[in-house]
Structures are given as C-alpha cells and as structure tokens.
Specification:
DNA-binding; 7 helices; 2 domains; homodimer; about 65% helix; Arc Repressor Mutant, subunit A; about 160 residues; mainly alpha
Chain lengths: ~160, ~160
DNA sequence: AAACCGCTCATCCTTTTGGGTGATTTTAAA
DNA sequence: TTTAAAATCACCCAAAAGGATGAGCGGTTT
C-alpha cells in the first residue's frame, strides 16, 4: 500500500516534471530561438530527464531478490506420542523415498550388503544412496547420518 | 562470476553503443546539417541512449531488495524425565565404564580414531573396547551396538 | 603370591565403508 | 516434447572398521 503510494508519488512527480519541461522547451523555442547554447541545454535536459526516467523504470521492473531467514521454533513434544516424520526437512534436503528407506535400514544396524539384499538392489546402488544421504545430511559416517536423521525427525527415535 | 561477466557484457555493449552514437552524430552534423528532422532524430537518439543508460545505472547502483521469508523450523524438545541408565543391564552384561564411554561416543557418530583422540588412548585400544562391546551386546556392527544399547537403556535416545 | 580384571597397546589380516566418476534407464514434471 | 530428477549399476581406490590373538601393567580378591 505504502509502496504503491510511493510509486504513484514518484510517477506524478515525473509527470509534472515532464509537463514543466514541455513548457520550458516551448518557451525556449518561441522566445529565444537564437539563444547561444540553446541546443546544448536542450540536449542536456533531455539527457538528464531520460536518465532519471531510466533509473525509475529500472527500479520498477527489477524483481526483488528474496532472502530466507530460518527461525527455529521450539516445540515441546511428548515422547509417547507417535513419531511424526518431518516432511519439511525431507523436502528441504531433497531426500528421496528410496534414500530414506536406506537410511532407516541403516539405523536398524544393517550393513550395506544386507540392505542391498533387503531392497533387491546391488551393493553399489546402496552405496550410491548412502553417499547421497551423507551429502544431504552433511555428515561423513553412517553413524552420524543416523544421529542427525533422528534429530531432524527423519527417523523415529530408538526407545527402550 | 557469471553475474559479473553478464554485467561486463552489458557494459561493453553500452560502450560500443556510445561509440556508434558519437560517429553517427558527427556524421549527421557535418554531412546533413540542414536535414529536415535532424534535430528530432538527434534528441530521440539522446533520449533512448540515456534511458538505457539510466536503466543500466540503476541496476548497477540499486542495492538488492531483500524480501525476508521466515520459515519456522520445529525443534523437538523433550520435557519428559531425564534418561535413567539401566544399571542392571550394565552389570548383567559386565560392561565396564570405559566401554560405556566408548559406546556413547560411538553413538554420537565419532570414528574410532576420533574416540581415541577424545579419550587420549590409541586407536587399537578403542578397537579392543569396541570388539568387547560387540561381544557383550551380541552384535556385529557399531550401528547395531548403538541400536541395541538404546533399546536396553544403556544410552539416552536421540530426540529431535 | 596367585588369580583375576580392567585397561592399555600391538600386529596381521579381512571386510566394510566411503569418495569419486561415469553411464543407463525409468519416472515425473514443465 | 523436452527437461529434470530418481534410481540403478559399475569400477577403482582409500580409509575405517572389525576379527583374532597376544601381551604388559596396575589394582583387587582370595
């Protein structure tokens, strides 16, 4: 709202400026046709005017750049409540279903080989998935991945 | 980097444009001094040029407008009773303090080497401890050890 | 003193895990 | 339809983890 008014104000300002300019030019044309530096002045005015107009136009056109600020909000949760998967975090880190599947089997303590057998894929595939997971979770080892994942709410906590 | 190149490209473009304009104007001045619409053309060219220049200038000058998006990130907090170590299980499995120490560092995702540094012992020592732990917990891998330990109440559960 | 235990460390060897890269295929979205 | 992302697999190499075994040291218990 205020933004719009400001822009309108600017616009009106420029319009008024233009009107004044026109009058000024007419006046120059008919009154002092043979003024010594008339041409230079005229050109300068035009230049300055369009320069300002260009600046204004650019400001109008430019799309504002977005900056995201993540604010952590504490939420108290009872242990006994069922685990709720944090899908926001999943999307944020672009973790696929398959990767999450591997992650969860990892957390159960399975080796890559066992995971491969469980999912009917090759060992190499499991490795690829785990490598991507480590990148996305910003960790170096599977144990860290499990820790981090639980903290982020991607895996259910292990309760005795 | 790409941004900078783009800007440079633009800059060079404008420079070239200006040079062409100068030549054009000279040409107009000396060759067709009495051309019918010379003045209007000249002014138009000046106007267009400064309009573009203004746009370019504005883009250069304007500090990027930041639009802040606040994303609330839920952080799970456990208000339940603090973790109670299951000492019975500890005694039953004859797990020593040192072993438990290693186990807990393991659960934090540390490598054997990092654990060794943390405890001021050699890598081999850590390996020995972990090997004994695996025996006592009846597991094969550290990930399983962590899982089992949490289930037995030897380690605090990881809560988001 | 002998036996035992926890802690320490070593060596040798194998398996597992992880990093990097590249390729193909399937699937989903624009 | 073109593009983009996911999922699949391979190969190579390096680092970490694990298994097996032996051994020394400082305590406590008997």
């Amino acid at each position: 709202m205020i933004e719009k008014l400001k822009r309108h104000k600017e616009l009106l300002g420029y319009a008024a400026m233009m009107a004044v300019l026109m009058l000024l030019l007419r006046w120059l044309e008919f009154r002092f046709l043979i003024l010594e530096h008339q041409f230079e002045i005229y050109v300068t005015i035009i230049a300055v005017f369009f320069l300002l107009f260009g600046i204004w136009l650019a400001n109008k056109i430019t799309n504002p750049k977005e900056k995201t600020i993540i604010v952590e909000k504490e939420v108290r949760i009872n242990i006994n409540e069922p685990f709720i998967l944090n899908e926001t975090e999943l999307e944020l880190r672009k973790i696929s279903k398959r990767e999450l599947e591997v992650l969860s089997l990892m957390a159960e303590g399975l080796s890559n080989n066992e995971i491969a057998e469980r999912l009917f894929v090759s060992l190499n595939t499991v490795k690829t998935h785990s490598a991507k997971l480590f990148e996305k979770l910003e960790v170096k080892r599977r144990t860290q991945a499990i820790e981090t994942a639980k903290k982020l709410g991607l895996l259910a906590p292990t309760l005795g």
